[in-house]
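Listing S7. Sequence submitted for prediction.
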Amino acid sequence: MPAIPDRSAERGALIADIAGIASRSHDLRETLDNVVDLVAKRLDADVCSVYLTSPDRSALTLSATMGLDKSSVGQVRLATGEGLVGHVAARGEPEAFAQAQQHPAYRYFPETREEQFASLAAAPLKVRGLSGRGFTIGVLVVQTREERHFGEADVDLLETCAQLIAPVVMNAQLLSVVAGGEERRSRLIEEIGSEGAAPVPARRPERNAMLKGIATSRGIAIGPVYFLGDAVDLEHVDYSPSQDAEQEKRDLQNALEEARRELQDLREDVTQRFGPDFAAVFHTHIQILEDKGFVQKLEKEIARTGNALESLKRVLAEYERTFGAIDDPYFRERGVDVQDVGQRVVARLLGVRHHDQQLTDGAIVVASALLPAHFATLDVEKVAAVVSEHGGPTSHGAIFARALEIPAVTGVTGILAAARAGEIAIVDGDAGRVTLSPDDAVRTTYAKAQQRALVAVEHLDALAERPAETRDGHRVRLTANAGLLSDLRLVERHGAEGIGLFRTELLALVHRGFPTEEEQEKLYEQVAGTMKPRPVTIRTLDLGGDKAIPQLGTELEANPQLGWRSIRLSLSHLDAFRAQLRAVLRASAHGNVRLLIPMVSSIDEIRRVRELVQQTKRELAIAGIAFDPKLPVGIMIEVPAAAVIADVFARECDFFSIGTNDLTQYALAVDRGNERVAHLYDPLHPAVLALIDRSVRAARKAGIGISLCGEMASNPLAVPILVGLGLEELSGVASAVPLVKEIVRALDSAAAADDARRALEAATVGEVRAIAAARLAEAGLLEHPDLGEFLRSAVQGTNGNGAARAQ
């Protein structure tokens, strides 16, 4: 039988359907049944089965099937490495067998009655465990009666299914594992990893008590501490259960239903205020609330105790013990979700309604964890900063804080015990510090830095409508980097001329998996439509490296920044990549979209991408779907190899975008996240400037556009040099656009070009910095009445709001 024909539209629908399984399934068995039924139908297979591994991963059990004898579910067990399924589990890679029964590893299980099936293809279900360690939790299998020679596209599609299904299955397992007793919980914790006891914070001093955390969202704030009242103290609540056991049970059921409706309303509210990209955060919460295992445990407890609150306390405590013992943050987050949902049910049971009438202007909001729901319920206009005891900069709540430009510090151990309601606190979102009850000297220092930033912002906002044009008429386009719908508000606020870099991977990180084609289409369509006619440059998924999602399998790489990431990863997941190309092309119908390919290092890669783009255009044309037939396709110059042969790439591209963050890191062989060598990381290094210059010259010679994105585009010291090198467009953080515009308007392009030539001939970073600082001084910027102090601190490597640093 021939290979499965290419049905791109069906594959996009398949990915969307798999992503929706989480919202349709209420327990592990239902999840697996939904999976096998869907995959069998969509892959034209006679059989689809899922085998799950034992806790020690030494064996697999048939856990769901469509096509094999149903009575064999739970009965067929094989060792890892045994049979074709065990063989795939052991290898950890997908594989296809046209003549399955002829393979040496084949093993026949009579109870399945699978002798009638000739061909088999299988892909492992892989997730991320402790410290990024990946492991296999099962195998997804399809079989056909007639012999089928599975092609590369077939296997790739099956692997994509497995990657999308794995975290859904894992979440269902985590939700159901609590019901499995102490032994099963212990195995899970041993499998994923356990953590030690939390450190006990030292007794705080009365003044200037400084606590360190993780810098999460830039900015400085000074204000009174406000504790979020979301958590209900279950140990000190006055509750009298109904004497009627059935009424008590109904009260609990009503609380569950009210909490579910509340979450649905919250999801709709977040969609309205922040965009649909954030709304997916609440899908998981609703899934937990509808999880049969969670509900059944509550029903069991209330039947035994006759007390709804006591039942909730016991079930939540059991979940907390299980998830709290897991060290890996990806899995531990599921426990945070369960606790958040549980607290919501408790509040509905007790009739608690949270209001923010005590929230005063300029409040420093302190919470155990920074949750998306906080931003949906708080009056964010009154929030000066947010601080949390747990969590990190990649949490959903942290993304909200940055999108709203609210300073934030997370992972501040001991803040809940140390802080007192109403006391003055200083939050330094640049350095990741929180100072409680600061003395006059400390408060004055921070107040001055804060005031410098405010004065600068007020002055710069007045320039929003003026062009970024040098004194002698040289025009520079200033665009913004973005990644979420909520970022568009900042683009408008700060007067950016478009989006020079739209990071599509943020959607993947929010979802913790490949986003569906439909989700991407909605996002790109809204971004392009909102910005029209201003340009929008959409970068394909830049995943891998320091932006891994659990099912990719990139966590095991010894050197991930040099490994399987960005376009290399996309070209290895063609179905997901094609889905993204279709979504971008649909959005391009607005006529203002450009497609940007990251981390290209060889001509073969861009040629392969162009081939896929052309194939996708033909598919859309046949389907009668509108798109821009002249969609510009460009590459990021962020690998030194691309800069060295930029003249060759220029013949294959419509434009260049220089990504200075990675270009600097690769050119200088410096991991800027490594504190031992981070001081060596500097984009003003003459070698980096030489690579930028080479790329600009190649673009000019070929007559194609060139822009620069990355932190360098927002660096006050770098701007004069970049203008002098001939960059046509600078794309940085939206909040830095007004400052960069002021610098550009103070420059003379001929003088800047002379500075750039001298910088290229410089021997050290120090010499380059001196050249740039002299230009800012000669332009009168360092003595500017409103911006002088602000710019001087920025040149020295610090500033009031962290929007543009010299480093």
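Caption to Listing S7: primary sequence and predicted structure tokens for the chain studied. The domain at 8-192 is CATH 3.30.450.40 (Beta-Lactamase). Residues 245-274 form the longest helix (30 residues).
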